[in-house]
Design brief:
The structure is a single chain. With 104 residues, the chain is mostly helical. It has one domain. The protein has five helices and two strands. The protein has helices spanning 2-12, 29-37, 39-47, 54-63, 79-103; strands at 67-71, 74-77. A hairpin with a 2-residue loop joins β1 and β2.
């Protein structure tokens, strides 16, 4: 759930998810602060048992090799993390296609 929240935030901020894996871009300190202040993301994190917020989620992902810290409060997903996000996007796109075909 933590990686999904990061991917969702990044995509909703108008950026292509592919840029999330570039060390020069990635998830930055201001992104983390924005996620921490957002009530919806806070609720999602709490429901995923990250009661301490985004910092706990980042630590969880980092400890399991899904996220790399590239500087102070700057992160990029590992290849496994990006694979997970790409799979989610693929499943979502397939669902949209099926829903569209069903309505026709």
């Amino acid at each position: 759930m933590a990686l999904l929240i990061i991917g969702r935030y990044f995509a909703q901020s108008g950026r292509d998810l592919q840029y999330l894996e570039f060390p020069a871009v990635g998830l930055r300190e201001n992104d983390i602060a924005t996620i921490a202040k957002d009530d919806e993301y806070t609720m999602m994190l709490r429901s995923a048992e990250f009661k301490e917020g985004i910092e706990a989620a980042l630590s969880f992902l980092r400890n399991r090799g899904f996220l790399f810290e590239t500087g102070v409060n700057r992160y990029i997903p590992s290849p496994a993390g990006m694979y997970f996000l790409e799979k989610l996007i693929g499943v979502y796109q397939e669902k949209i296609e099926v829903d569209t075909q069903t309505k026709e």
